[in-house]
Amino acid sequence: MNNSLVIKSFISNYSHEEGDYYTFKEENYLEVTDPFAIEAAKACLNENNQDYLRGYVFLKFNDKVILSEKMETEDMLYTWLNFSEIIRKNQEDKEYKITFLDNAIGDALIRKKNENFEFAFEYEKNKELVVIPKDELINELKTNYLEFIKFCKNPSLDFSNESLYNSIIEDQNSFK
């Protein structure tokens, strides 16, 4: 089987408060590369006092979807900061918790074992683990984290001082 890892960031395009889409695109989420994602992010931030950017991280390995929109997080910055710990500390055999803020399903647990990472979910205690080669995961995480940070640095987006925006900028500088 050919190892193919796909990681993408999606921003919410739907207002739970208004019951309507932020943009004319009638899609719940827009990939950060979508030209209308900035407009959706601005509206989402406005709805959340410039503190939180709702969305999800999509992760697929060998045609198996591991993370999807059902793992939505109220704060993409917080979730990406969790993933960044794997980028920074990937030499350590340990367990990393990825938090999907305000998601009733639960969080992901990623265990580093030798030259691989194992994905599990707190709600699926006896489910088969998905194993991803270390270097492949680190490279894809780093590429997509930097893409997400670049998206967040768009001058049209205004994050509050209480948001984790400054933390992701500092974090970015720690592994350049």
Short description:
With 176 residues, the chain is an alpha+beta fold. The chain has helices at residues 37-47, 76-88, 134-152, 165-174; strands at 5-12, 14-15, 20-21, 29-31, 55-61, 64-67, 95-98, 108-113, 116-121, 130-133.
Largest sheet: 4 strands, antiparallel
What is the count of β-strands?
Answer: 10
N- and C-termini, Cα separation: 32 Å
The 3D shape can be described as globular
Kindly name the structural category: alpha+beta
Give the SSE string. EEEEHEEHEEEEHH
Main sheet strand line-up: 4-1-5-6
Strand content: 25-35%
How would you describe this protein?
- With 176 residues, the chain is an alpha+beta fold.
- It is built from four helices and ten strands.
- A four-stranded antiparallel beta sheet has the order 4-1-5-6. A four-stranded antiparallel beta sheet has the order 7-8-9-10. Strands 2-3 form a two-stranded antiparallel sheet.
- Strand 2 (14-15) and strand 3 (20-21) form a beta hairpin.
- It starts with a strand and ends with a helix.
- 31% of the residues are buried.
- The model has no long low-confidence stretch (mean pLDDT 89).
